[in-house]
Design goal:
Strand 7, helix 7 and strand 8 form a beta-alpha-beta unit. By secondary structure, the chain is an alpha/beta fold. Helix content is 43%, strand content 18%. 50% of the residues are buried. It is globular and about 65 Å long. The strands form two sheets. The chain has an eight-stranded mixed β-sheet, with helices on both faces. Strands 11-10-9-12-13-14 form a six-stranded parallel β-sheet, with helices on both faces.
Length: 390
């Protein structure tokens, strides 16, 4: 297809040193790099962290915007603040962002901004919804707030699909729901996340994380949605049977609660918090793991899941959202969410059976190695753009 000028629009984005936290931010950068390699001119429009600026990461231009320091004041790489989501469209609309063929907004408020900008400058609006908390708001917010958020999702998701030329979902489970809510089926497409095979592969040299212990590893933003409390609650039964340690990479507002939970269960020698790991170093930690665990309450097509499978690691994950769209029962263990007992049972089963771990790891690698590279995802995204501009 002909070269396009593409603007990816999202509140949080990479800094000059890359991405420290955030699956969406990583996906945004990796997709942009792959689209640039395919001959497109790609710019990421994001909220400033320390004043407006422009810089390049490889062939992708990152343009940060601000308005009355609202972006600078709400910058928090470990937690996407509601105030930032509300303020970002105004900062984007106040900037000079003309001349793009595609204005591609990610999630809700950025999707609105992309539509306004496309209409203002004569471009084409595309919107990506990176999953949904619709089924779990009741677990992580008070009843009134939960009901408000559910109503907002139910209203905005199909509305943005009608407004945009195309709406992309990274999880098919929510795409199907949005169509039921009234989104035009011909405008809705599912495109999963991907991985960089140069960075994530079975030949990565592993990092020596914990010496001789068996390593359970997870890399998550430390928020309630990611279910880490249930993984911690599973650990007493695990360490009673195996010389294992849980290594948690990440940061976020739930960190102190999780550390207190570790102390309450006397797991200080069995659970390590290593802080946020730069995405460029994540392959070393994944490759050092004997088992990767993803205990989320909800996920779309989890980037960490795909990258772990690409590194040929056995995975235990919750059977929620888009996870079973990526990993079926032949290439990993699926467990119910919010269930520490089932998590501990699955972990103990894998730690006791080395051959089973190897079988899962091989099947996981085969499942993603040829279909979910970022180049393949960029090709699918190009097809969505072609439909939008036509």
């Amino acid at each position: 297809m002909k070269s396009l000028r593409i603007a990816h629009i999202y509140e949080l984005g990479p800094r000059p040193e890359g991405v420290l936290l955030g699956g969406i931010e990583v996906a945004l950068l990796e997709l942009s790099k792959s689209l640039a390699k395919r001959g497109h001119e790609v710019t990421i429009i994001t909220g400033a962290s320390n004043g407006a600026a422009e810089f390049h990461i490889e062939d992708v231009l990152i343009k940060t915007v601000d308005l009355a320091d609202t972006m600078k004041r709400t910058w928090d790489p470990a937690n996407l603040r509601f105030a930032r989501q509300v303020a970002f469209p105004f900062a984007a609309l106040a900037a000079e962002l003309s001349g793009f063929d595609i204005y591609h907004g990610h999630f809700y408020t950025s999707g609105v901004a992309a539509n306004v900008l496309a209409r203002k400058y004569g471009g084409n609006a595309v919107n990506t919804i990176h999953g949904s908390y619709y089924d779990i708001w009741r677990y992580i917010e008070p009843p009134v707030i939960s009901s408000l958020y559910k109503l907002t999702e139910r209203t905005l998701a199909p509305m943005l699909a009608r407004m945009s030329k195309m709406q992309i979902h990274t999880g098919g489970y929510f795409a199907r729901r949005v169509i039921k809510w009234g989104a035009p089926p011909d405008k809705v497409v599912t495109i999963h996340n991907g991985f960089d095979p140069q960075a994530f592969n079975p030949n990565v040299v592993s990092s020596d994380v914990t010496g001789d212990k068996t390593v359970l590893f997870t890399a998550r933003r430390l928020v309630e949605k990611n279910g880490l409390e249930y993984l911690i609650l599973a650990m007493p039964d695990v360490v009673a049977q195996h010389d294992a340690e849980l290594v948690i990479a990440g940061d976020g507002p739930h960190k102190q609660y999780l550390q207190n939970l570790v102390a309450q269960h006397d797991l200080q020698n069995d659970v390590s918090f290593i802080g946020a790991v730069p995405h460029t170093k994540l392959p070393q930690f994944i490759s050092a793991a004997d088992v990767v665990v993803i205990p989320s309450l909800m996920e779309a097509s989890s980037l960490f899941l795909i990258e772990s499978m690409a590194c040929k690691r056995p995975v235990i994950a919750t059977n929620v959202g888009g996870i079973p769209e990526i990993m079926n029962k032949s290439c990993g263990v699926l467990v119910p969410p919010r269930d520490a007992f089932e998590l501990s049972k699955a972990i103990n089963q894998l730690l006791a059976d080395h051959d089973l771990r190897d079988n899962f790891a091989r099947a996981a690698y085969v499942a993603v190695k040829d279909t979910l590279t970022w180049d393949k995802i960029a090709q699918q995204t190009e097809s969505a753009y072609a439909k939008a501009v036509s």
